[in-house]
Write a structure and sequence with these properties.
The structure holds two protein chains of two kinds.
Chain A: E1 15-18, E2 28-32, E3 59-60, E4 65-66, E5 71-75, E6 90-91, E7 96-97, H1 107-121, E8 128-132, H2 134-145, E9 152-156, H3 164-178, H4 196-210, H5 213-219, E10 224-226, E11 238-239, H6 240-253, H7 258-270, H8 281-285, E12 291-297, H9 305-317, E13 322-327, H10 341-355
Helix pairs in contact in A: 1-2, 3-4, 3-7, 4-6
Chain B: H1 3-8, E1 17-21, H2 27-36, E2 39-44, H3 47-55, E3 59-62, E4 77-83, H4 92-102, E5 103-111, H5 116-125, H6 149-158, E6 162-169, H7 177-181, H8 183-186, E7 189-195
Parallel strand pairs in B: 1-2, 1-4, 2-3, 4-5
Antiparallel strand pairs in B: 5-7, 6-7
């Protein structure tokens, strides 16, 4: 039974694991992905791979989530488009792709499905549930829904709920997709087309919110990619940042499903940690039994340090063990994926504590 | 461990909840946790100290006291400790008020600027004291609000802060009698247990 009241007869979850589960089954760590993430979080699948998994900076031998020490589970969430059941899967009832008829999901649905995955893997209690951004929201939800199954909760660059500005950006992204004629009301798969322009535009908007002003300035400045701004020349000039964004958009539109993007952004919009707890985050966190690490990045304006401090303050008021650091980083929200020395240091230090079970 | 920290240990109830403002590398909270099963939280702003304290398995919050402590609820800790930081905050009186609001009891330690060496240095050389104990020049020191034992007690009286106990650290390993008898002149570090 899903939060929306509907039921899914069955579903697949695709996942990867790194490291070895110990005899006591006490070293398992769950990695929750963000908006556009998936199960392939670390390492390379083949020698031909251009890039490693999306969180390779943090998962691996000697890295913060040390695979010599932990058994790491990383899945593609329900509703995703990288192998887990989602809008692009075939609906057994109709024999057609689910498309826009796939049930809407909430963060809690992901957490419940992850708990069933844990059951399958024989993991009674996670040494840690870890996530950045939307992943951090799943980690917090875990701490409230399954307090006895989480020892440590690591929440990176997240928030207890979206701000009006966050909601607004998500709406622009969705409208970009919905207004693309190739979206065809979500039934594009049956017509064998993809709403590439809409999806690309959605990603471009999203991408701007992942970077800081400073990061964009230092990466692109006002550099031109083509054309000239000299007087007397009539041809159009194109800035580097324009071509970068378009490239990001087009890459994304060929690898991500539009219905999934809509589903994921809605799950993000609807998430409100304390809604069922009288809108009181302190009351909410009193249900948790784990220790928390909360991290934020100074130039993140999508989920700013202030959003993280709200989490920390609620945890303090709820008398729950919490460690917090604000990492100075120029890269904005994206920083949580990057090898920033102090970030890795603090993260590693905390994960060592997780490994020693303190 | 600094002498003032070993001194104040005995005032901390086993198993109690302690907030350590300016906890450094967490050495003291670790001791309290291991020796007295204290549930501690530390506040710190120095990056290196924070990492070290996390390695010790402590709960550390990166927060600047000078930006306020309003995120800590009233009477939410049994004891609030601030060791050797009073002289480094922008508004020591406000921080004290906040400590008393957050904790049932507070413990404050600070270097005593009334100690005879400081007086002698200032009196004879006419320059701000620089010593092994306070190794900064006036222009680069983090210690911006020096006070004496008498100054602190005057503030307590003015603000109706109850002094439950006073302890001192003098020169040398053992607590010299002189520092106990004439703290304002002989204590290098003053230690107060206060409440409201």
């Amino acid at each position: 039974m899903l939060a929306c009241g509907r039921e899914l007869a069955g579903y697949d979850l695709v996942y990867e694991t790194y490291g070895e589960l110990n005899a006591g089954r006490s070293n398992a760590v769950l990695v929750c992905h963000a908006l556009s993430g998936h199960h392939h979080a670390a390492g390379y699948h083949s020698e031909g791979d251009r890039k490693p998994g999306w969180w390779d900076e943090c998962i691996g031998p000697g890295k913060p989530i040390d695979t010599e020490r932990f058994f790491v589970v990383s899945l593609n969430n329900l509703g995703g488009c990288h192998g887990s059941t989602g809008p692009s899967s075939i609906n057994a009832g109709t024999g057609k792709p689910w498309g826009p008829d796939f049930p809407p999901l909430r963060v809690r649905d992901w957490v419940h499905s992850q708990a069933r995955l844990a059951d399958r893997l024989g993991i009674d209690c996670w040494a840690a549930v870890i996530g950045g951004s939307l992943g951090g929201m799943q980690a917090m939800r875990w701490a409230l829904e399954y307090p006895e199954r989480v020892k440590h909760c690591v929440v990176i660059a997240a928030a207890m709920k979206l701000s009006a500005q966050n909601l607004a950006f998500n709406e622009v992204a969705r409208q970009a997709i919905l207004s693309d004629p190739d979206f065809a009301g979500g039934h594009y798969m049956e017509k064998e087309i993809i709403p590439a322009r809409g999806l690309s535009l959605a990603r471009m908007v999203g991408h701007i919110t992942y970077l800081s002003d400073h990061a964009m300035a230092s990466k692109f400045g006002r550099d031109l990619r083509s054309g000239t701004l000299e007087q007397g020349a009539e041809d159009l000039a194109e800035f580097q940042v324009q071509s970068y964004l378009r490239y990001q958009g087009s890459q994304f539109s060929s690898s991500f499903d539009a219905n999934t993007y809509i589903l994921m952004t809605r799950a993000l919009d609807y998430f409100d940690l304390a809604r069922e707890y009288d809108n009181d985050p302190v009351l909410a966190f009193r249900h948790s039994r784990c220790s928390f690490l909360v991290l934020s990045f100074s130039t993140d304006w999508r989920f700013s340090p202030q959003r993280s401090r709200e989490i920390v303050d609620a945890l303090i008021a709820a008398d729950r063990p919490v460690t917090y650091a604000e990492i100075q980083a120029d890269e904005g929200h994206d920083a949580f994926l990057l090898p920033i020395p102090r970030y890795l240091e603090v993260f590693s230090a905390y994960m060592r504590r997780v490994g020693e079970d303190r | 461990m600094r002498l003032d920290l070993t001194h104040i240990q005995r005032w901390i109830e086993p198993g109690s909840r302690v907030l350590d403002l300016g906890c450094g590398n967490g050495e003291f909270l670790e001791l309290l946790r291991d020796a007295r099963q204290v549930r501690g939280t530390g506040l710190e702003i120095d990056e290196r100290n924070i990492t070290e304290a996390i390695y010790r398995g402590l709960n550390i919050v990166e927060q600047d006291m000078d930006q306020g402590l309003s995120n800590f609820p009233d009477q939410s800790f049994d004891t609030v400790v601030m060791a050797h930081a009073l002289q480094a905050v922008h508004y020591p009186d406000r921080v004290l008020e906040e400590m008393l609001r957050i904790g049932r009891e507070c413990i404050v330690t600070f270097p005593n600027f009334g100690q005879w060496r400081c007086r002698l240095h200032l009196g004879t050389r006419g320059r701000m004291p620089v010593s092994k104990f306070m190794p900064y020049h006036w222009y680069d020191t983090p210690n911006i609000h020096f006070c004496t034992v008498k100054d602190f007690e005057a503030l307590c009286q003015e603000r109706n802060i109850r002094i439950l106990a006073r302890d001192v650290v003098g020169n040398g390993k053992t607590r010299p009698l002189l520092a106990s008898a004439w703290p304002n002149l002989f204590a290098t570090t003053a230690i107060y247990r206060i409440t409201r």
